Amino acid sequence: MTGTFSSVPIVDFARLSDPVTKDEELAKLREAIFLVGFLYLTNTGLETLIHHTHEALPELFALSAEAKEACNMINSPSFLGYTRLGAETTAAQTDLREQFDFGTPGAKEWTEQDPFWRRLEGPNQYPDYPGAQQLVEEYITTTDALAQTFVRLVAESLSLPANTFDGFRGNMSRLKFVKYPPAAQNSQGVGPHKDSAGLFTFLSQDNTGGLQVLNKNGQWIDVPPIEGSLVVNIQQGFEAITGGICAATTHRVIAPTSKTRYSIPFFQAARLDLTLDQLKESAAHIVQRVPTSDDQKKRAVDVPSEFLSPLYSCFGEAHLRNRIISHPDVGRRWYPELYAKYSQQILK
Ligand SMILES: O=C(O)CCC(=O)C(=O)O
Ligand SMILES: [Fe+2]
Q1: What is the pLDDT of residues 160-196, one digit of tens each?
Q2: pTM of the model
Q3: In this predicted model, what pLDDT tens digit does every residue of 219-251 receive, in sequence order?
Q4: Cα(318) to centroid(ligand 2), Å
Q5: Spatial distance between the Cα atoms of 237 and 89, rounded to a whole number of angstroms
Q6: Residue 102 and residue 258: Cα distance in Å, rounded?
Q7: Which atom of ligand 1 is nearest to the CA of 189?
Q8: 10-12 and 38-42 as β-strands: parallel, antiparallel, unpaired?
Q9: pLDDT per residue over 256-291, tens digit each?
Q10: I need a labelling partner for 14 at 20 to 30 A (CA). Which of 74, 109, 194, 348 fits?
């Protein structure tokens, strides 16, 4: 194993599911998890659903401004709904994209008796587009099932029992439909970031390109589209749960210049109520049981992550802070005191 990577590896889900090829493919998965934090997952069986969903996106985004504004995220304390171009911030710069955010349906209604961060889970706002709700629900259900199987395979690839991470799963995963319009060369589609609260992200990109990941030498590596694949990456939630031995990787999207780019990221949820103490205890346990090189163990000691910051009481609060900073208009409307507090804090 070398120190860093110059391309994103491909892992074949069908081979992971076949007893004859499973061990060979698990070894590839393990290397991708440790070395890159990103991989292409091919042959997932979701190709048709992904294709149909991409087909719907141009029309969905072509709805009138009024129709889109009717489900604006500003209406939602759960940060669900439509975000127009220029209303989102990453790495202190405005992103050039518009998007719809959805969550796993069925969230329990928040009341004053619940912890404040529980309000992150709430009802969807669907655009007035035929079949939108059905499409979103099918996409979320299907991808959630794949994600669950995938996390078990990751555990096995780390020589852990398959159910090791089952107890860390959260209630509401998030799905986004994203549109990046053409822009001047080298514009920020979305700025450098790590995905936040969840376990893994499963991203379907169209054939435009523009996604890049940062390697340990500080080079941006292209993640060119592979038809039908999902680009899977580690989120900061999973990084924290594994004590940093499975690290989240920084990535960004360079805005397209001559055509519109569409993408569909799905963020698998982690438990919001996990406290820092519980997290440290379980992470220490996991780190101890995963056979890794000394170098990887060293990384495990010191993880710079919002989700390991003593500033936040639990995962839920760290995630809420992340949403408030990314969507400041929504944050100011629903959480004015928290907005004032979090926007002052500098994360180390
Ligand atoms: O659109 C993409 O390809 C990636 C988007 C992304 O990284 C994100 O929304 O977290
Ligand atoms: Fe991301």
Answers
A1: 999 999 999 999 999 999 999 999 999 999 999 999 8
A2: 0.95
A3: 999 999 999 999 999 999 999 999 888 999 999
A4: 17
A5: 21
A6: 28
A7: 1
A8: parallel
A9: 999 999 999 999 999 999 998 888 888 888 888 887
A10: 194
C-alpha of residue 338 to centroid of ligand 2, in Å: 24
Q: How many domains does the chain have?
A: 1
Domain range for 135 is 10-347
CATH number, domain containing residue 133: 2.60.120.330
Report which bound ligand comes closest to the CA of 203.
1
| 241 located within any domain | yes
Between 166 and 300, the more confident residue is 166
- Residue 237 placed within a domain: yes
Query: Rounded to an integer, what distance in angstroms lies between the CA atom of residue 105 and that of residue 134?
Result: 11
Residue 175 lies in a domain: yes
For 67-101, how does the pLDDT look when each residue is reduced to its tens digit (9 = 90+)? 999 999 999 999 999 999 987 888 888 889 999 99
Task: Note whether residue 99 is domain-resident.
Answer: yes
Q: Which ligand 1 atom sits closest to the C-alpha of 267?
A: 10
Residue 69 has a CB neighbour count (10 Å cut-off) of: 14
Separation of CA 264 and ligand 1 centre (Å): 8
In degrees, to the nearest 5, what angle opens at C-alpha 9 toward C-alphas 5 and 13?
155
CA of 253 to the centre of ligand 2 (A): 9
State which ligand 1 atom lies nearest to the alpha carbon of 195.
10
Does residue 246 come out as left (phi exceeding 0), alpha (psi in the -120 to 50 range) or beta? beta
User: How far away, in angstroms, is 253 Cα from ligand 1 center?
Assistant: 7
For ligand 1, which residues put their CB under 6 angstroms from it?
178, 190, 195, 203, 205, 211, 251, 253, 263, 265
